[in-house]
Amino acid sequence: MSNNTTIDLVKTPSLILDEERMSNNISGLLSRIEAQSVTFRPHMKTAKCVEVARRVMTSPRGPITVSTLKEAEQFADAGVRDILYAVGIAPNKLDAVLALRAKGVDLSILVDSIAQAEAVAAKARLEGDPIPVLIEIDADGYRGGVPADETETVLAVGRALHEGGAELRGILTYSGATYECREVDEIRAVAERERRAATRSAELLRNAGLPCPIVSVGSTPTALFSRDFTGVTEVRAGVFAFFDLVMAGLGVCSVDDIALSVLATVIGHQHDGRRILVDAGWMAMSRDLGTAGQRVSQGYGVVCDLDGEIIPDLIMSGASQEHGILSLRPDSRRALPDLPIGTLVRILPNHACATAAQHHRYNVVSKGSREVTAVWDRFSGW
Amino acid sequence: MSNNTTIDLVKTPSLILDEERMSNNISGLLSRIEAQSVTFRPHMKTAKCVEVARRVMTSPRGPITVSTLKEAEQFADAGVRDILYAVGIAPNKLDAVLALRAKGVDLSILVDSIAQAEAVAAKARLEGDPIPVLIEIDADGYRGGVPADETETVLAVGRALHEGGAELRGILTYSGATYECREVDEIRAVAERERRAATRSAELLRNAGLPCPIVSVGSTPTALFSRDFTGVTEVRAGVFAFFDLVMAGLGVCSVDDIALSVLATVIGHQHDGRRILVDAGWMAMSRDLGTAGQRVSQGYGVVCDLDGEIIPDLIMSGASQEHGILSLRPDSRRALPDLPIGTLVRILPNHACATAAQHHRYNVVSKGSREVTAVWDRFSGW
């Protein structure tokens, strides 16, 4: 989609994507991963946008990671051929998986239980399609995965897949524990735990005579800071292209790296000038308060001017559906800035995945320019 | 859209709407309001769906309330002709307002400052369209509105509109304070404060020789529980058609009245059977934790079986983007129920407006039946 407009003419609330910042974020991570000689399989759950995917992928055919089969279908329609659906499979999704594979997509899936492995293997035999499967290993008790120390279960899942008619393609770990880290050394420790859980499980399979070509690890924090990729074949990361306040709070990026913001208009002033109301509420920002548990709570987001320069100490401190409340940080000694009705601001989000999901498109700008150079559609739903 | 399917064949996660419960919720509020001889102007920000609007509106032409101009446009396309956009107007939205009015929609807007009133009046004069405007009055310091005791400002806004070329149509209040109530008597007190703020401001305008035909109050809690509508001409309410756990926590409805749920599939078990994973995370439920400050925190939602019967003590205690974690309430003495991989559950949301917004359509069922009788599209964005 093309256009000839400037950011001050975009209707509010809207999503603004700074392409220069995004490009820097992408090249920063890609150069790090290329130096490690591992495959990069970016996670498209944040952007859900074909144009962003084309800038993040190492080839037009992928590989990519997705969080829904809708993403798999949309990216397959755009020509991507190597897709990992990285949420534990439900048996009722196998028909959709097979339909995509029948179109020529190398779609692989995830299991973490014998029950799932048996269901997938049975379907693979029934349909004559050796569905490729990774075994999810749980390195930190965060979410899914066979606990790394349950070696008998790992082997049983591997055998159920390999001997049952599916393709045992490897091991996958994800370390959600990085979200609780307070400094980069803690992220490095999490990354090393993740790597060890993955590589040991891979060894376990191989020692039992089972195949394990892929050892997949990663998240934006661990992809950026882990020091050792020995035994790892593939790294995943998603939010790195946009970054957000949660990532900045972890020390993974600077606030100035954040490429995504929500454009909003000032619509009122309250409480003797202590609050400014804007037309972006939680519907535009999401309800994500991901920095609330970090050193500095950013409320619903950090407020910038139209050019993306941070307005000191001003955050979105409250939100209802279509109203955002801007106020100074509790410890600020500044005066509230003079932002008359109609003033446009840009609000940096806590969590790019959640905020982007509230919108249908990205208005693309470049740092320092008000020109909207492109409008990129994004998709949502399942 | 029609179909011939049953709920167990709907892909997950998906939104399920129990039409029988919804109809009971609607008739409950409508009969109460009709008895008061006031106009009912339902708020469509929760449903954002033409089929739901048709069941909630008192006539095919409205009136309705909306929270975005996108809603106004969509409902106008469906034939609604009396629409109130109940978020303080930004000057950059006036062209879209005028475009809808030029199509024959009686679209009214909201202001709470002299600056807005002057901008609207100037636009009204320039375009020769006396845009109808309500003045928002702040009864409780919750969000927008001229503080009820700032009588000079109320009058100045009224004069700027009436003498400036716009149509001064009346007064509007909204009491967000009900969300902090702990019992019905507190809701009644908030409702009475809201009524007094509205009717006194209306008197103020009328005594100054200014018109004020409409006095609009309401929210689901105050519409259901206020005892006195003297001086009020119009009542608004939105979430009442669906209800949710926040409303149940306030005592405004029973959990058994909640018409909306998210269908999800069990995809795993963790932590020695203390956690169940499902394929509905915060993307399907939203990040809204609105019951966290109430007497009973419901996490991300209350878990029911496929027929909508509550599974005792089971809540969604955690969520990542596409994973929900189900566990027993902290004080439960029960054993975790046996929900094998592939089991379908339905999760009642904290906040219907936020959860519905994450989905593209409603799968309509009726209590006690598994037949999906209709699929209704909903819209989103701005």
UniProtKB/TrEMBL annotation, chains A, B:
Q: Which UniProt keywords apply?
A: Isomerase, Lyase
Q: Does the keyword Translocase apply?
A: no
The entry lists its GO molecular-function terms as: alanine racemase activity
- Keyword Isomerase on entry: yes
- InterPro entries with a match to the protein in the record: Ala_racemase_N (IPR001608), D-amino_acid_metab_enzyme (IPR051466), D-ser_dehydrat-like_dom (IPR026956), D-ser_dehydrat-like_sf (IPR042208), PLP-binding_barrel (IPR029066)
Q: Where is the D-serine dehydratase-like domain?
A: 259-366
| EC identifiers of the protein | 5.1.1.1
Any one Pfam family match given in the protein's UniProt record, by short name: Ala_racemase_N
Q: Which SMART domains match?
A: D-ser_dehydrat
Enzyme group, top EC level?
Answer: isomerase
Q: What Gene3D superfamilies does this protein's entry cite?
A: Alanine racemase, D-serine dehydratase-like domain
Q: Indicate the family of this protein.
A: Belongs to the DSD1 family.
Q: What is this protein called?
A: Alanine racemase
Species name: Mesorhizobium shangrilense
